[in-house]
Amino acid sequence: LGLALYASSLCVVSGAAFLYHDYCIIGAGPSGLQAAYFLQQAGRDYVVFERSHAPGSFFALYPRHRKLISINKRYTGKSNAEFNLRHDWNSLLSHDRRLLFRRYSRDFFPDADAMVRYLEDFASLLKLRVQYNTAIVHVTLERDEQAWNGHYFLLTDQDRQNYKCSSLLVATGTWVPNVVNFPGSEYVEGYETVSINPEDFAGQTVLILGRGNSAFETAENILGVTNFIHMVSRSRVRLSWATHYVGDLRAINNGLLDTYQLKSLDGLLEGNLEDLAIIKDKKGKLHITLRFYLENRNISAGIESITLPQDELDNFATRAPYDRVIRCLGWKFDFSIYNRSLRVMPGKGNKKKYPQIKPSYESRGTRGLFVLGTASHSVDFRKSAGGFIHGFRYTTRAVHRLLENRHHGVPWPSTVYPITQLTNSIIKRVNEASGLYQMFSVLADIILLRENATAFEYLEEYPVGVLAELEMQTGRKAPNGLFVIIMEYGRNFSGADKDVFYYNRAVGEAQHAWQSNFLHPVIYYYKRLPTEREMRLRPPDWPLPRPDAIHHIVEDFLTDWTAPNAHILPLRRFLENCLGTDLRNFFAESCFLFAFTRQKLPPFCQQGYVRMQGLVGSEGLRRHAVEAGLLEDYTLTDFSGDRPPDSHEGSQDQLLRDHAIPVRPLQHLVNAKDE
């Protein structure tokens, strides 16, 4: 039987044997393991290829100085697991409560070795199917009309073993160092190999190429032992608290900014690195010059024969020679293993380090090839957290749900509620949901309205970039309009040149909610599903096209959107205006009155009171309603006058106070009248 099963897993193509799986995942980093978890939970046929002997090999080396910049907030004052994930930037999603990162480190900024241990446990405890020591060196296509996507993916490893799969999930991250070639670049040390022992830099003068966290991390490590450190990059420094992008410079690494601005020799410069040139003198010192000074000159002829910038400008900023030059320019995606038939192409501009993908995370060149994790960051580069664990754990789940619908006919998970629960459902999600919170402006909750707005269907964390394709991608229908719930920062609040600490930066009044600066919920209402053309022509910096109506829930200092007057009441009235209905909750007495005084009952009375559902009355509840002005206080009726105690008002008061006597529904009253 075992031989038969093994033989059935082999496909013979042109004489070569291929091991077949429905899903192949390249890379056992965080996103690869996250995808494997969802596929395993769904019972799918998959395999993960990992070139190293253990998962998370990137974290075994990086960051070089071993301190992660992803926060590990162990205490929030709340026990809600979904809410706590908002402030846990390292855990992957799973059902196993043992696999929360706070059990692996007590540090707010954990050591990278803790991440290595965590990923090893994640793979082993969940029994994920990872094939280690398998480096995929070539990927190509085989056309086949019978395949899911019209072709199969053919993979070859370092031992020339071949594999065949219907869908390919690329989770390799970005690990190829960015290198700038210029005259003298052979004297530059790379971040990936430079010493991390501060004593190796004692008394030296250092130039660092780069302006990101790896550059500042390197500078922070040697700040106290060097003569001075200069840092040069083509762009100005971008602080994460100003841009609200976690990939920009974090406070934990910005010591060099202090020593620069407080006049302690260190400094930052801006310039195009490709215009530089480095010349080494006889003493081993490195001199910085410009490329055009070297045109038609022989560098090997010696520094004495070469014109340096300080020869013409005696206060040239980098005229002092350096002992070492370190390259810290980040990483890029490895395009080398993909055959041209897959058309895996780099992005444009500042996204060229990532492959081109759609907002659905599917390759623009090849159907069925999805990019996960850090390499998928082109969708939200410099906007949201899709390049980091606390972001791509949710986008990976979204990709899995898209695949489940496409290949297995499993619609996007949803829950149907009566329309009376619309306000509560939104308030609950904006106060708890971690995916909306971390992947702001990228993932959204979708509310699909049923006919006559009597009920709604709730879909969680759908990629807004493919909103026009919602019916095809999810298997759900949206014929009666929809709400889109998303989290956003203020339009003009984020940027490298923004002062985010200015006076009166916060908005506190509901009528000015649209001017909120900090992260806050925004609800878009569409009478119909937006088209692809409308998505393409949406206003700049808008995540969605112009809606039929829009509502901002005012920002909150505690990120707690439960204030009755500031948050809930304006939201409810917005929803009522969109739907043309009354979404308030009523006591049975009010529904009883409406039954005789209105042509149409509010939904709460229709779906509750008329069906003999709702809150059971009591004296304490009645008294609270009276004090709140929701009911009249019939106990103040004076029975000492001419009116007898068995009058109509007295009987009504007795009925209201005696909760043991049930109120008969409207249809029973009609029958009694007929009788």
TrEMBL record:
Pfam families reported in the protein's UniProt record: Pyr_redox_3 (PF13738)
A single MF term (Gene Ontology): monooxygenase activity
Cofactors required: FAD
Keywords (A to Z) from UniProt: Endoplasmic reticulum, FAD, Flavoprotein, Glycoprotein, Oxidoreductase, Signal
GO CC entries: endoplasmic reticulum lumen
Alphabetized InterPro entries for the sequence: Auxin_biosynth/cation_transpt, FAD/NAD-bd_sf
Subunit details: Interacts with SEL1L. May interact with OS9 and DNAJC10. Interacts with TXNDC16.
Family recorded in the similarity comment: Belongs to the FOXRED2 family.
Protein name as it appears in the record: FAD-dependent oxidoreductase domain-containing protein 2
Classification of source organism: Eukaryota, Metazoa, Chordata, Craniata, Vertebrata
Name of the encoding gene: Foxred2
